[in-house]
Amino acid sequence: MTKQRLYLYDTTLRDGQQTQGVQFSTAEKITIANALDTLGVDYIEGGWPGANPTDSAFFDDAPRTRAKMTAFGMTKRAGLSAENDDVLAAVMNAGTDTVCLVGKTHDFHVTAALGIELAENTGNISKSIAYLVAQGREALFDAEHFFDGYRANPDYALTAIKAAYDAGARWIVLCDTNGGTLPAEVARITAEVIAAGIPGTHLGIHTHNDTENAVACSLAAVDAGARQIQGTLNGLGERCGNANLTTLIPILLLKEPYASAYDTGISLEALEGLTQISRSLDEILNRVPMKQAAFVGSSAFAHKAGLHASAILKDPSTYEHVQPELVGNARIIPMSNQAGQSNLRRRLEGAGLSVAKGDPALGLILDQVKAREADGYSYDTAQASFELLARQALGQMPDLFEVKRYRVTVERRKNKYNQMVSLSEAVVVVKVDGEKRLSVSESMDAEGCDRGPVNALSKALVKDLGQYSALLEDMHLVDFKVRITQGGTEAVTRVIIDSEDGQGRRWSTVGVSANIVDASFEALLDAIRWKLIRDNKA
Q1: In the chain, what is the straight-line distance between the N-terminal and C-terminal CA atoms, in Å?
Q2: Closest Cα partner for 507 from 524, 480, 521, 527?
């Protein structure tokens, strides 16, 4: 069967930048654009030239991509010709072969927001698209608030998009701008648009996730005949975000009926880089990746229950709908007090520790895990700490270094500007390579800001670890979580630290103590020891 072509349009650099707290630099936008091109999307919307300095600078230095680089703007303003509208001129001057213009298709927005007659708005759409086409540009029309407009006044909504299509638009993109339309209605309205005379091969879908249905609505539009999907990496976007391409792409390539019916232009080889691209974006944004994200989340292929893990050992398809390797992810068998020996052995094998079935050490490890979790530890997420516990029980824990003592102080004082500031200082004494070493470090960063007592301890600890110090230079902390596991005067603090290194590896460690600094230091020690062991440098 000949596959139909389905086009993927990424708007991470424009719509994604509307996410609260997200602001890309020009260099970051170039990095993301290159990653998107490597993945294989068909269109990359670079931003709105003229709307802000960053977007304008991006188009001045936009990378050469296989994907069609697209400039975004709006239809000409009332009272101006397309040729004399300076806002439209800025979009055209970006020099992209493809231009996407947004326009009103909801009668309420035309009369209330724009304050013009419906016919004038239709004329503005038609003249703007015709101008793009006359200049040799591929034109897309984003029909803003289309689904709301179609419900309120279907005749006008259709008139507006037909004006763009008749003027030469390559794509008419139906936008669920408020994100409130549900999949069944998206499918119905998309089918009615096609029946009204706009071919599905010229129809796109742009959904928002305000009801957690953006992906489902996008697929519903495809089922109804639309052949372009707009979305963002990791579902970035205003309010609740846009349709998530890191979810949609694997569905289209790996799940039926889409895998057999459509060609997206993205290869299975490129799909294997999806998880890395997703996490790289989070790294750029300095955000912690969402563990439960479909396909690319660190928990997407985690099997905690003993019954599940036992079945996974026999056949992974018992509890996995796709193979994690296909999207560049990995299977995880977390350790917790729900674990059985099958679960345990699988997790040990993943750490390179082979233990025979029935080995008495398995029972010992399980008992230790359950006893320590009763004390407040959690090995469900702290896989690296679990591995160290298991190595200790198996007699496979190398003698790396020993912490003899440490001290950390936090001082609050006025600086030369008469401002109250904090300063943390740590002293750590370790025994390594047969000798004691003392290191002192403050927690000030390059900008002179205090990074806290845990940062001071970390810097002091790795400052003089003999043969190991250089091996830890590419390691850094990416997340720090604190939880009080008991209340009252007997409160116990659990600290989870997520670390990452230059190889892109990410691991979690846990520490527990009544003292938050002590719990943090325990987790930090585990993080360092795990890296040294995994690098085979012990």
Answers
A1: 56
A2: 527
| Residue that is last in its domain, among 213, 236, 266 | 266
Give residue 85's identity as a one-letter amino acid code: D
Give CA–CA dist 204/214, Å, rounded.
Answer: 14
- Domain limits for position 72: 4-266
Strand order through the sheet with 420-432: 402-414, 420-432, 435-442
Contacts of 242 (CB under 8 A, 6+ apart): 11, 15, 16, 206, 207, 208, 209, 214, 230, 231, 232, 235, 236
Phi, psi for 139 (deg, rounded to 5):
-110, 135
Q: Tokens at residue 404, please?
A: 């003899």
Nearest CA among 214, 220, 274, 216 for reference residue 242: 214
Asked, for residue 173, whether it belongs to a domain, the answer is yes
Query: Cα torsion at 350, 268, 174, 285 (round to 10°)?
Result: 50
Question: What is the rounded distance in angstroms from the CA atom of residue 375 to the CA atom of residue 412?
Answer: 34
Query: For the domain that residue 466 is a member of, what is the CATH number?
Result: 3.30.160.270
Same domain for 455 and 417? yes
Under DSSP, is residue 437 helix (H, G, I), strand (E, B) or coil? strand
- Report the number of distinct structural domains present in the chain: 3
Which token pair is 37? 């091109």
HSE, CB side, 13 Å, CA atoms: give it for residue 88.
24
Q: Within this chain, do residues 352 and 470 fall inside the same structural domain, yes or no?
A: no
C-beta of residue 131 within 8 angstroms of C-beta of residue 82? yes
Q: Are residues 244 and 315 in the same domain?
A: no
pLDDT in tens, 412-449: 888 788 888 888 999 999 999 889 999 999 887 777 77
> How many C-beta atoms lie closer than 10 Å to residue 321's C-beta?
10
262 and 360 in a common domain: no
User: Rounded to the nearest 10 degrees, what angle do helices 341-350 and 360-374 cross at?
Assistant: 100
Q: Give strand pairing partners of 479.
A: 498
pTM above 0.90, yes or no: no
User: How far apart (Å, rounded) are the C-alpha atoms in residues 124 and 117?
Assistant: 11
Our CA dihedral for 246, 247, 250, 254, rounded to 10 degrees, sits at 180
Closest CA to 9 of 32, 43, 36, 33: 43
Give all strands (DSSP E) within 116-232, no chain letters: 138-144, 171-176, 203-207, 228-231
Strand, helix or coil at 260?
Answer: helix
Q: Which residue matches tokens 């390559």?
A: 170
In a domain, 283, yes or no: no
Q: Domain check: are 371 and 430 in the same one?
A: no
Q: What confidence category does residue 158 fall into, taking pLDDT thresholds of 50, 70 and 90?
A: very high
Position 295 in a domain: no
255 lies in the same domain as 347: no
Q: What is the rounded distance in angstroms from the CA atom of residue 310 to the CA atom of residue 145?
A: 49
Residue 331 contacts residue 301 (beta carbons within 8 Å)? yes
Please report, for the domain that includes residue 234, its CATH number.
Answer: 3.20.20.70
Quick check: is 259 in a domain? yes
Give the C-alpha separation, 512 to 62, whole Å.
Answer: 49
Q: Measured between alpha carbons, how far is 302 from 458 in angstroms, rounded to an integer?
A: 30
Token pair, residue 202, equals 């010229």
483-507 residue pLDDT tens: 887 655 566 898 989 898 888 888 9
